[in-house]
Write a structure and sequence with these properties.
alpha+beta, 342 residues, 16% helix, binds zinc ion, Carbonic anhydrase 5A, mitochondrial isoform X1
Length: 342
């Protein structure tokens, strides 16, 4: 049976890696630390289904717009005011792919103006920062969001920050209207040609950054890329992918749902405008299997397969999900694989 990770005491503090992923933790940090103490340090919980990061209490205290959610199509509201999304990415800004210990992530140079998205529900231009995936141990689960209680084998998140309102990504993470994340469901089908470029380098980033490497950055908290000169990390947790335009991972039809939500990993900041594509994209079973060859664990630690790295569904509360398309019912989302979302 595939096992989710116990990160161990040295690496169960999400703060350093989370800082690397999202910037400084604010607001909800205490909650995520408590999860850590309760779950990922406990050896007896090594066989939990999900990564410990996602198995703790589901809501941030006072949080009213947490993600992911179950999108009930009958309850979505068509909003004719929603503009088409305008997407323009600079493939040359792609920097590298790395194993965060939670998923694999592709980073972009966000100093480049003009590479990002606007339109849709967004009032400003949002600059491309990174993208990553969530997936399951089997094809029956894996996506974070659900549609009509059904989930997909995997979900892509393309993360952008509001470069009009904020000077940098780290400030945008904690700020109002700070982030915009485009979500894409992955379904099983034909091989995805562009995705294969990433799949081909996954063996190079099998392990997450090690505890020692985490400690190595303690003295350099303000460095944007604390790992960049670390030889071992470059060899084992980070790899070059060359120019890459993530728009090649989007479906041809870009009807979307949108709602106000949060990050799905600590610090769970409620700064995200979610833009969920209504059409899914096809990937082959072998491509998805390649995701499951990665490890939550660092080199030298007991190997823990990186699977089920999705957060449980959160309550919608009084939020509304808006649709860019009038035809929200019908065959658009037909690719789920059968598991009923919890
Ligand atoms: Zn995500």
């Amino acid at each position: 049976m595939l096992r989710a990770a116990s990160l161990g005491s040295a690496s169960c503090r999400p703060s350093r890696l989370v800082k690397q992923m999202w910037g400084p933790i604010q607001g909800h940090a205490a909650r995520s630390e408590r999860w850590c103490g309760q779950y990922c340090c406990a050896r007896k919980n090594r066989n939990v289904i999900r990564h410990p990061l996602w198995t703790g209490p589901v809501s941030v205290t006072g949080g009213t717009r947490q993600s992911p959610i179950n999108i009930l199509q009958r309850d979505t509201v068509y909003d004719p005011q929603l503009k088409p999304l305008s997407i323009s990415y600079n493939a040359a800004s792609c920097q590298y792919i790395w194993n965060t210990g939670y998923f694999f992530q592709v980073e972009f140079d966000d100093a480049i103006k003009g590479s990002g998205i606007s339109g849709g529900p967004l009032k400003n231009h949002y600059r491309l920062k990174q993208f990553h995936f969530h997936w399951g141990a089997s094809d029956e689960s894996g996506s974070e969001h659900a549609v009509d209680n059904h989930v997909f084998p995997a979900e892509l998140h393309i993360v952008h920050w509001n470069s009009v309102k904020y000077p940098n990504f780290k400030e945008a993470v904690a700020g109002e209207d700070g982030l915009a994340v485009v979500g894409v469901f992955l379904k099983l089908g034909a091989p995805h040609q562009a995705l294969q470029k990433l799949v081909d380098v996954l063996p190079e980033i099998k392990h997450k950054v090690s505890c020692a490497q985490e400690s190595a950055q303690t003295d350099k908290p303000n460095r944007v890329e604390p790992w960049s000169t670390h030889k071992e990390r470059q060899q084992d947790s980070r790899a070059a992918v060359g120019p890459f335009d993530p728009s090649c991972l989007l479906p041809a039809c870009q009807d979307f749902w949108t709602y106000e939500g949060s990050l799905t990993t600590p610090p769970l900041a409620e700064s995200v405008t979610w833009i969920i594509q209504q059409r899914s994209v096809e990937v082959s079973p072998s491509q998805l299997s390649a995701f499951r060859t990665l490890l939550f664990s660092a080199r030298g630690e007991e190997e823990e397969v990186m699977v089920n790295n999705y957060r449980p569904l959160q309550p919608l509360l009084d939020r509304k999900v808006r649709s860019s398309s009038q035809a929200t019912r019908g065959p658009k989302v037909t690719a789920w694989t059968g598991r009923t979302g919890s």
